[in-house]
Amino acid sequence: MNGNKGKKKLRITVLILSVVLVTVMFALDRAGVVDFDGDGVFSDFENSDILTVSFLDVGQGDCAFIQSGGETMMIDTGENSAFPVVEDFADSNNIDCIDYIIATHFDSDHTGALKRIVESYEVKNLFVSNAYSSFNSSAFTDCVNTAKKNATKVVTLSGEGSISFGNAVVNTFAPSYETENENDLSIIAKVVFKDTSFLFTGDAEKAEENLLIKNGFDLKSDVLKVAHHGSDTSSSQPFLKAVSPQFFVISVGENNDYGHPNEKCLDRLYEFTDRIYRTDICGTVTAVSDGAAITFSIKN
């Protein structure tokens, strides 16, 4: 009899502990402390106390999902062949509406999947550079026209501006000077969430970096998405000094044909920090900010 009572008490104790454990894990997940889904991607995007940035592993290209206060932003989309990666991420995180897409410039490794995205999801706003029409990119023009047909508001950026996004602010700079180098017309986007910030630079090269410094654009940021996949034509010493990041993220394809990231560029980055995340090594890189500190996780 006493033995049966002991077993019953043990079962009740185990049950109580299990309930407590699940409750604690759920609370930690809601706070963004642990990844409850176990897939390396934080899925609690409606938590107003955090901002989540996921740099997707789309091979040799750029694509980032940003979440704040229940709103979703994409910066670039990767190649058309990267659409399944975008689709998998969106489906895994129950994303069927994208509030904002910023297309930094017109190379296919940055906007190749744009048309399929605007056809497959509700996209409320698409931000493009005022220079997009001057390069006679029929593929990109087709994307813009498709967006308009799908009731997406297309906004042309020029000079400095800002976008209110969830509980964050995105400060933008779209250059409008004459150049034959499309990379140097990349839209620059600085995402500011409380005391933390992320700087996205498209494929901007040294000429645009110098222009940003000359114009006094506030470059200081905690995280720098390294321009042009770590090419030696970008990330000049004066520019890196102006940004002074604590972390670098390089979106780059494994064994790519361009030798990215360039060793000279990497040497310049290491002068600032060795906290460098590369999608060719780490897979998708996710950064979570609570407004004061930023933590990283990887999924490879």
Characterise this structure.
The protein is built from nine helices and 15 strands. The protein has helices at 2-30, 83-92, 108-111, 114-120, 138-149, 206-214, 237-243, 263-270, 279-282, and strands at 51-55, 63-68, 71-77, 97-102, 122-129, 153-157, 159-165, 168-174, 188-193, 196-200, 223-225, 247-250, 276-278, 284-289, 294-299. Strand 11 (223-225), helix 7 (237-243) and strand 12 form a beta-alpha-beta unit. Helix 4 (114-120) packs parallel to helix 5 (138-149). The model is unreliable at 17-43 (pLDDT under 50).
How does the SSE layout of this entry go?
Blueprint: H1 2-30, E1 51-55, E2 63-68, E3 71-77, H2 83-92, E4 97-102, H3 108-111, H4 114-120, E5 122-129, H5 138-149, E6 153-157, E7 159-165, E8 168-174, E9 188-193, E10 196-200, H6 206-214, E11 223-225, H7 237-243, E12 247-250, H8 263-270, E13 276-278, H9 279-282, E14 284-289, E15 294-299
Parallel strand pairs: 3-4, 4-5, 5-6, 10-11, 11-12, 12-13
Antiparallel strand pairs: 1-2, 1-14, 2-3, 7-8, 8-9, 9-10, 14-15
Q: Can you tell me the CATH superfamily of the largest domain?
A: Ribonuclease Z/Hydroxyacylglutathione hydrolase-like
Ends: how far apart? 54 Å
Number of strands: 15
Q: What's the CATH topology label of the largest domain? A: Metallo-beta-lactamase, Chain A
Largest sheet: 8 strands, mixed
How many helices does DSSP assign? Answer: 9
User: Shape from CA axes?
Assistant: globular
Helical content, roughly? 25-40%
